[in-house]
TrEMBL record, chain A:
Annotated protein name in UniProt: Branched-chain amino acid ABC transporter substrate-binding protein
Pfam families membership: Peripla_BP_5
Organism, as annotated: Bradyrhizobium retamae
Residues annotated as signal peptide: none
NCBIfam families linked: urea_ABC_UrtA (TIGR03407)
TrEMBL record, chain B:
Domain of life from the UniProt record: Bacteria
This protein's record includes keyword Protein transport: no
Entry keywords, A to Z: Amino-acid transport, Cell membrane, Membrane, Signal, Transmembrane, Transmembrane helix, Transport
Name this protein carries in UniProt: Urea ABC transporter permease
TM spans (from-to): 245-272, 304-324, 387-408, 429-451, 471-495, 502-520
NCBIfam families linked: urea_trans_UrtB (TIGR03409)
InterPro entries in the record: ABC_transp_permease, ABC_UrtB_bac, ARM-type_fold, BCAA_transport_permease
GO molecular function, one term: transmembrane transporter activity
GO cellular component, one term: plasma membrane
Record family assignment: Belongs to the binding-protein-dependent transport system permease family. LivHM subfamily.
């Protein structure tokens, strides 16, 4: 009897248990489904500590600002966007770990992140393996086109080459100093520039190439060398790919040794409004920078953006810069692509992105190209006494970004085409996918 | 510079010489039209306007062009009126010279680019050759030397004949020589004399002028020019040695300044303090705060901001140092590995704290006027900020040395480091001395931060870039010996600066590290090793 009862209870409870479990599982699934449907997660992978925090923190704020603005408009596909911010701490291997965490643990639909090329290279395999999307907002050395990455910063032909053209035509520069920090972006850019200058008939002895370590602070010798190199009776200019913290002491030394922009102009590719915020710019009047965006550019979109950004950061002096604009464009493109395919599925969004257009802040419309780069205008600005730039030249229209440089032997036949050829390094000479860089 | 501008400059100089001779009356119509062109906000219009105004002979030409250079020329795009804001703040109409109550609201400064800036400089050079101020005449002669514009020759000749000031006369003679060198119809004798004058000047600009000469010279002149270039080159090569030595001293002074605090905490006390760089950073941020307060409240005191910041930085960094010693390090004496890890962690904490408080971006610390610019000594340029830092470093070193030698605290410090137990039994409160010594080392690091804020970024990472160099200097110089730190810092600075032109900055740094490693193999205790019982303690 007892056994029977027990058995009954046991069977009953087993049945009940099964039902309950099933119900619970269903319920949980439904619940978690409902929760997942509430928001779309957006990963932010920018260093908030360490050396690169100086540049990257602003980009994190930019994405948070854009997400807030988008949510005010009702989010995307009727869902709110939810930022997931991680701190890779300027540590390149940690970038890969944090990227993996964002994609697998937090299940983000898209990641906005990275600054240095080495951090991008470090996360590439993760994005490929887990098939997610990265928007990379910084000007870089090119020679890359990946299916999972969208490059909203400038390729060399959207920044370096037009700047050199400007100096050659408008300033009649005949002698060139290519000065950079010793890592992959300056080295590749300078290789491209050297090939380009030589193709324009500049002789080897009229090119001086100089590399310095990260954070170099004693520029006396190099500035004196530049001065000496510039006194050979030909107009000389410095093309600077000096990165980050080293710029402030470099410009201070230039100012103190009395090198004026009218004698030897310096055109920089990594110095923007943020970097100038730490320098007294009066001695730098007239030195140049090449970017696709300047805060001083007058357009209704830009004025609106600056106002909203300064209100968001509660700082009426907060500056804007080029990589921020790249994030603005990239973010809008992603939103449009998601709305077009009505899904955040990476494959669908990746296929939808090429061809998407978004307004840039300088009054034009940028377009995502099949090689995952975008079209951008190029501006040359001169440093003004108030730390802003005065645009002295711009390209007549928008320039399409080249993933592979036409100046370099190894890459001049390659194109990236993720629409027709489904290939990032298609060799147009032998009509085959693959080649150098694959 | 466009060719038609040069034509206009030529006309301008003629006009000036005429104006000087006949006091020609100003032309009214074309001048006003030219001035109005500044309002078009178009670089080529501005270029034309500069030329036309400069050649007008109008007495307002000089005020207009110099206002343009200083950004004091503004234009109203609607009414096409152009205004000069004078140095005393009064506004006049640029076309008529009539006083105006105030600038219209939509008037904006006339923009310049580098090409126009050069045009302005050249125009001012022409306009100021006859200025009553000798310094301005010299500057004008220099700009003619650079542009070697043929049309300036009659004015220079006239000015040279009347000139009484010796240095202005020399500048005019050089400018005249530069013109003659490039003048196609100058005689061979004239050109040979010109080469000699330029050779005597002997600097980089003289060399630029000579190397820029074309190939169509008479053979004698070409030979003279070549030998002048060679002699200037060898002269400059000699000066570049002097220059390297100076740069070495300057780099050495920076190294010494960064390392001298560490020489106390690590050298004298034996604490491996990885947070040393952050003390430097705290000093730099103290300077920033001081300058912010001064900027907003007492702008007149700006030139004294560094003098005010030095004691404050010492107190701030020193206080933090005492706190660190009392809170962490005193529990870790005799455990170097734990000290290293604890202070390393502390350095990250301090960095992030500053990053949170002040933001991750660089903060602007201005150079007071007495630390900006440079002067020429022979053929080398010496910048004031580097010179002051060198003097400052030596002063800090001497004061520190005197303190250790002649004050009671210094005596106690030396006693404690030489023999702790003996000192304790003589009644010295050793733990108090430990805290004060650590505070002193940290405070000096803070002072270093004040000086380094003048040449480097003020960012949370400031300290990191100096910590390795500082340890290198102290270890190389000999642990526990201040003189060793001094000699070590200057040796490394000078060696680095002589290697850099040969090997490049990156390889130069590596070479120095390799040399130090080899040296330490040979002399593990550094240049000036401590002898005696203290070594074993």
């Amino acid at each position: 009897m007892v056994t029977k009862l027990t058995h009954d209870i046991a069977t009953l409870s087993r049945r009940r248990w099964l039902a309950a479990t099933a119900g619970l599982i269903l319920g949980l699934a439904a619940f978690s489904n409902a929760k997942a449907q509430e928001t779309i997660k957006v990963g932010v992978l920018h260093s908030l500590s360490g050396t690169m925090a100086i540049s990257e923190t602003t980009l994190k704020d930019t994405i948070l600002f854009l997400i807030e603005e988008q949510n005010k408009k009702g989010g995307v596909l009727g869902k709110k966007l939810e930022p997931v911010v991680v701190d890779p701490a300027s540590n390149w291997p940690l970038f890969a770990e944090k990227a993996r965490e964002l994609i697998t643990k937090d299940k983000v639909s898209v990641v906005f992140g990275c600054w240095t090329s080495v951090s991008r290279k470090s996360v590439l395999p993760v994005f490929k393996e887990l098939n997610s999307i990265l928007f990379y907002p910084v000007q870089y050395e090119g020679e890359e086109s990946e299916r999972n990455v969208f490059y909203t910063g400038a390729a060399p032909n959207q920044q370096a080459i037009p700047a050199v053209d400007y100096l050659m035509k408008d300033e009649k520069v005949k002698r060139w100093v290519l000065a950079g920090t010793d890592y992959v972006y300056p080295r590749t850019t300078n290789k491209i520039l050297e090939a380009y200058l030589k193709s324009k008939g500049v002789k080897q002895e009229d090119i001086m190439i100089n590399y310095t370590p990260f954070g170099h602070s004693d520029w006396q010798t190099i500035v004196a060398d530049i001065k000496k190199f510039g006194s050979a009776g030909k107009k000389t200019a410095v093309v600077s790919t000096i990165n980050g913290d080293a710029n402030v002491p470099f410009y201070k030394e230039l100012g103190n040794q009395g090198i004026k922009a009218t004698d030897i102009p310096v055109v920089a590719f990594s110095v923007g409004e943020e970097e100038l915020a730490g320098i007294d710019t009066k001695p730098l009047l007239g030195h140049l920078a090449a970017w696709n965006y300047f805060q001083s550019i007058k357009s209704p979109e830009n004025e609106k953006f600056i106002k909203a950004w300064q209100a968001y950061t509660k700082n009426p002096k907060r500056v804007t810069n080029d990589p921020m604009e790249a994030h603005v464009i990239g973010f809008e493109m992603w939103v449009k692509a998601v709305e077009k395919v009505k899904s955040t599925d990476p494959d669908k969004v990746i296929d939808a992105l090429p061809g998407i257009e978004a307004k840039n802040l300088t009054g034009g419309t940028s377009k995502m190209l099949p090689n995952h780069h975008i079209t951008k205008p190029v501006f040359i600005g001169e440093i003004k006494a108030n730390g802003q730039f005065d645009v002295v030249w711009k390209t007549p229209g928008l320039v399409a970004g080249d993933a592979w440089s036409k100046e370099l032997e190894g890459s001049k036949d390659l194109i990236g085409d993720w629409v027709g050829k489904k290939c990032g390094n298609y060799n147009t000479k032998i009509n085959k996918c693959g080649g150098q860089g694959s | 510079m466009s060719a038609n501008f040069l034509d206009r400059l030529r006309a301008l100089l003629l006009a000036i010489s005429l104006a000087v001779a006949f006091a020609a009356p100003a032309l009214a119509g074309p001048f006003e039209d030219a001035v109005a062109k500044f309002a078009n906000d178009d670089f080529s219009d501005t270029d034309e306007a500069i030329g036309a105004v400069a050649t007008s002979g109008n007495p307002l030409a000089f005020p207009i062009i110099s206002a343009l250079q200083d950004g004091r020329l503004s234009a109203d795009p609607d009414t096409k009126k152009v205004f000069i804001t004078q140095a005393d703040g009064r506004v006049i109409d640029a076309a008529t010279g009539a006083a105006v109550d105030k600038l219209p609201d939509n008037a904006a400064a006339v923009r310049l680019n580098n090409r126009l800036r050069r045009a302005v400089e050249a125009a001012l050079g022409g306009l100021t050759l006859l200025s009553p101020d000798p310094a301005k005449r010299i500057a004008a002669a220099q700009s003619v030397f650079k542009s070697h514009e043929e049309s300036a020759l009659p004015v220079i000749d006239g000015a040279l004949a009347k000139e009484t000031n010796k240095s202005v006369k020399a500048a005019f003679a050089e400018a005249r020589a530069a013109i003659l060198l490039y003048k196609s119809d100058a005689t061979e004798v004239e050109k040979l004399e010109a080469v000699a004058v330029v050779k005597a000047r002997g600097d980089q600009e003289a060399m630029a002028l000579l190397t820029g000469l074309g190939n169509d010279l008479p053979p004698n002149v070409a030979r003279a020019a070549a030998s002048a270039i060679a002699s200037i080159q060898s002269n400059l090569a000699m000066w570049s040695m002097v220059q390297n030595a100076w740069y070495g001293l300057s780099l050495g002074s920076v190294l010494l300044l960064a390392a001298i605090g560490l020489a106390i905490t690590f050298g004298v006390m034996g604490v491996i303090n990885m947070a040393h760089g952050e003390m430097v950073m705290l000093g730099a941020y103290t300077t920033f705060v001081v300058q912010e307060v001064i900027r907003s409240n007492y702008p007149g005191l700006f030139d004294y901001s560094l003098l005010i910041a030095v004691p404050l930085a010492f107190l701030v960094a020193g206080a933090v140092g005492v706190l660190i010693e009392r809170g962490i390090i005193r529990f870790l004496y005799g455990r170097p590995l734990e000290t290293l890890l604890a202070t390393w962690g502390l350095s990250l904490v301090l960095q992030q704290a500053v990053r949170t408080a002040f933001g991750p971006t660089n903060r602007e610390v201005g150079n007071p006027s007495w630390m900006s610019g440079a002067f020429e000594l022979g053929q080398i340029t010496i910048t004031y900020n580097r010179l002051w830092i060198l003097c400052f470093t030596l002063a800090v070193f001497v004061i520190l040395l005197a303190m250790l030698r002649y004050t009671a605290l210094g005596l106690e410090m030396r006693a404690v480091t030489q023999n702790r137990r003996m000192a304790a039994s003589m009644g010295i409160a050793t733990s108090r001395v430990d805290a004060l010594t650590f505070g002193l080392g940290s405070g000096i690091a803070g002072i270093a931060g004040v000086a380094l804020s003048q040449i480097d970024n003020v960012s949370p990472n400031l300290g990191q870039s100096y910590i390795i160099d500082s340890f290198m200097v102290v270890v190389f110089g000999g642990v526990g010996n201040l003189w060793g730190t001094l000699v070590g810092a200057f040796t490394l600075g000078i060696a680095n600066k002589f290697l850099e032109p040969v090997a490049g900055a990156v390889l130069g740094k590596i070479a120095i590290l390799v040399l130090i490693i080899l040296f330490i193999q040979k002399r593990p205790r550094g240049l000036f090793a401590l002898k005696g019982r203290a070594v074993e303690a």
